[in-house]
């Protein structure tokens, strides 16, 4: 039994890579998912790309800090931030009341709404609770979109998936009738070869109570100084035109939103 | 058929190298867990056969918990819980440092907890197979308790516990698959990524299953050799 | 014949020697104290949270999830038991054409992780939609619940077949011969003589298999099923409150422990004639 603690301690020593670190924020570790194209995704050779990544790089340049990306599964994102695995989350995370109870957010850096996509031969006609009655609706778990589905479409049968990739597989095979996610994410997917199976059923009106007020950068509550730095940097890249440059690289519309 | 071969080939077009990395992680994790699990299991067995009831009970509570919890839940408890716990402890102690319990270590700890509670039963029944006279003989020769254990009891214990431990090893090998859920790039996760990207889930999960079978076969073969080796003393008799 | 006039008056047994405070004993007490403190902390933590918004919001979900877990476990165990009989028979058959496939089946399902099998069946079936629709089976594989039941049934049937085979082989040949000498037919001997004895031996492994299934069923949560683990993960993903997992642990421990105790009772009862 004593060995148990010894073993645990040894394991921890093996794991202890972090070192005492003064928080002058010369180096910031950024958590992202890498499974949410076009915002953040991993290329075949393991490189992070996307709008979130470009924005993060621009912000770090603006703040003159060195940034390091850490890839983390979505459902463990906030616990990992709280545990200190990284200092900020730039992964299209919407600013919501629920999340604000656990972490803090910077101002938004973009804002888009939810939408529903269905197989091309789908019999579904509308995006109301009535029209979706009994339909199997897929969503990524722990997202505002899954919460939206839970609140607005109680008659639909909600299925939660760890990443968008899995619900894409299931909607393509016809196992589920529809998926709900960000309109930009769905449109991007539908344009690709993978998305040939499906079409956009319709965009949904976001509910600020559920969808929040856009995607922000999540920060631990005690790191107010880092939050301020990020906020200044967001304003900075918008003023300098850097934001528009990145926006135009990825989208043909204004993603910042109202 | 040719397409499938391209998909599993090594290099840029195929997923062979990614899967090989996954196999490597799976094997490394199982091998890294084994010594901790075995040591812990051995000491738990000692505690379970102690004459002091409080010691026995402490050990039994441990095994009841880790044999009763689903392995997946143990994994989540360790992955999220230990991280939160450590961070609060560090903060409480007034340090400002970050200790990462990465998914490999979390997987290792969780699997070792489960493995040790099963291994303790294997050791315990092996202990029962060693007559008291063996200890007494050791003491009569003037050996200390520790040396009696090390020189006389342990060699016999290993021989007696080997079949059961071999089974536990095969189970451990399979349980490593669960770490894919907490983000460790093991065989199942790599197969899953390949399946999603290529839209060939049956092919890749089928390959993953076959690789596990292959690992099990290699293990069984190795275990037979080890068992034979452990019985070399008997054969001479 | 002399008779005993005076017998020695009965005396109480000598008092147990006071147990010395050996290192083991001290360590044992320290460890027990640690468990008790940990247990008390846990009870306090759970009790202080019993009226928290978390419990208010999710306790109903947990119960629903628990029921789903039990459904999955017992439906697949039942179907698996039915399936295990022909497999075990084939496995013990003298015909190689029956024996080898059965061996392969058992080896495959016992040698690969349940998680990989589940993925293979769930996502694999998804990629054969056209073929499955042709044979009119898509409705079955479309449903995640059926897929899970299917995967778990195949898995547990392999394990149960081995339990059954081991137990039947454990019954001595003389029992068969005795039956034949009485002029009983093969099926009668099997069902009336061999099986009851075999089941006695198989009782413990069967109990273990049920426990393994309860624990293994947590895997269903990964393919969109809201069993106890699924509800737990959903609750955690919304609240980021760690008590989600602690409550689940309590549920699982109670379930497994209760089952184990019932099973021990049952075993003691069924094998009472074997006690000496």
UniProtKB/TrEMBL annotation, chain A:
SUPFAM superfamilies linked: Periplasmic binding protein-like II (SSF53850)
Solute-binding protein family 3/N-terminal domain residues: 27-254
Keywords assigned: Signal
Entries under InterPro entries matching the protein: Iontro_rcpt_C (IPR001320), SBP_3_CS (IPR018313), Solute-binding_3/MltF_N (IPR001638)
Signal peptide coordinates: 1-22
CDD domains in alphabetical order: PBP2_mlr5654_like
Gene3D superfamilies from the UniProt entry: Periplasmic binding protein-like II
PROSITE patterns: SBP_BACTERIAL_3 (PS01039)
Residue ranges occupied by any Ionotropic glutamate receptor C-terminal domain in the UniProt entry: 27-253
Subcellular location: Cell envelope
Family affiliation: Belongs to the bacterial solute-binding protein 3 family.
Name of the protein: ABC transporter substrate-binding protein
Annotated organism of origin: Roseibium polysiphoniae
TrEMBL record, chain B:
Gene3D superfamilies documented for this protein: MetI-like (1.10.3720.10)
Family matches, as NCBIfam families: HEQRo_perm_3TM
Similarity field: Belongs to the binding-protein-dependent transport system permease family. HisMQ subfamily.
One Pfam family recorded for the sequence: BPD_transp_1
Location of this chain's protein in the cell: Cell inner membrane; Cell membrane
InterPro entries per UniProt: AA_ABC_transptr_permease_3TM, ABC_transp_permease_HisMQ, MetI-like, MetI-like_sf
Species of provenance: Roseibium polysiphoniae
CDD domains: TM_PBP2 (cd06261)
Transmembrane annotation, as ranges: 20-47, 59-82, 102-127, 148-172, 202-224
Protein name: ABC transporter permease
ABC transmembrane type-1 domain segment(s): 23-223
Keywords for this protein: Cell inner membrane, Cell membrane, Membrane, Transmembrane, Transmembrane helix, Transport
Main location: membrane
Membrane disposition: Multi-pass membrane protein
From TrEMBL, chain C:
Source domain of life: Bacteria
Spans traversing the lipid bilayer: 26-46, 66-90, 102-125, 137-155, 210-229, 244-263
Keywords: Cell inner membrane, Cell membrane, Membrane, Transmembrane, Transmembrane helix, Transport
Membrane disposition: Multi-pass membrane protein
Localization annotation: Cell inner membrane; Cell membrane
Coiled-coil regions, chain positions: none
Domain ABC transmembrane type-1 as annotated: residue spans: 66-263
PROSITE patterns to which the protein is assigned, alphabetical: ABC_TM1 (PS50928)
Annotated family: Belongs to the binding-protein-dependent transport system permease family. HisMQ subfamily.
Name of the protein: ABC transporter permease
Organism: Roseibium polysiphoniae
